[in-house]
Amino acid sequence: MIQIEGFVTGIAQENCYLIHNEQNLLIVDPGAEGDRLAAEIERIGKKPQAILLTHTHYDHIGAVEQLRKLYAIPVYVSPLEQKWLGDPILNLSGLGRHDDMPDLIVQPAEFEFELKEYTIGDMTFQVVPTPGHSIGSVSFIFDNFVVVGDALFKGSIGRTDLYTGDLQQLLYSVKTYLFTLPRELPAYPGHGPATTIGQEIDTNPFFN
């Protein structure tokens, strides 16, 4: 059985997820606080296999280099945002949002996602496109949950006023790739509490 644990990181209160089975572990969106995330990985006691990124805004990638080097594991990202990793303007760290934030430069990801099924560390998931918050945003569909990044939140959706944001594209993405999933499926967003697909279909004001 695949399990998921969430950890709120950094000044933007971003959710990093550690997904693991009996032996292996995947890191999704390590936004900040790399030492703390490493301590949680050691507590869980499973072997990290990869870092998966739903998108590349600063609050989702701040601890990528630390954990990538510590565990000698590859990073996966959408090809549409590969260059954002090393560009502080595109990943938003260089826009002066926080006075004490240095420009964030992450080395290129080893792998660029295709929109297909992956099996990494004996864990299988589907990568689907959910752009609208950013052009390369993707979601990860596992058998017993979906990780949706900043596409969908409990009672809301991701902001669309940033570079490559598009409200109509985001609404289409959610309706096409997320709201067609089983209603009971838990959905884990990039910020805030978890929800379910059915709850958002029924109550999310952007769709009702």
Automatic annotation (TrEMBL):
Top-level division of the source organism's lineage: Bacteria
SUPFAM superfamilies: Metallo-hydrolase/oxidoreductase (SSF56281)
Pfam families: Lactamase_B
Residue span(s) of domain Metallo-beta-lactamase: 13-191
InterPro entries noted in UniProt: MBL_Glyoxalase_II (IPR051453), Metallo-B-lactamas (IPR001279), RibonucZ/Hydroxyglut_hydro (IPR036866)
Nuclease recorded as keyword: no
Cofactor: Zn(2+)
Keywords: Hydrolase, Metal-binding, Zinc
Entry annotated with the keyword Ribonucleoprotein: no
Database matches in PANTHER family: HYDROXYACYLGLUTATHIONE HYDROLASE GLOC
Identification of the protein by name: MBL fold metallo-hydrolase
The species this protein was found in: Enterococcus viikkiensis
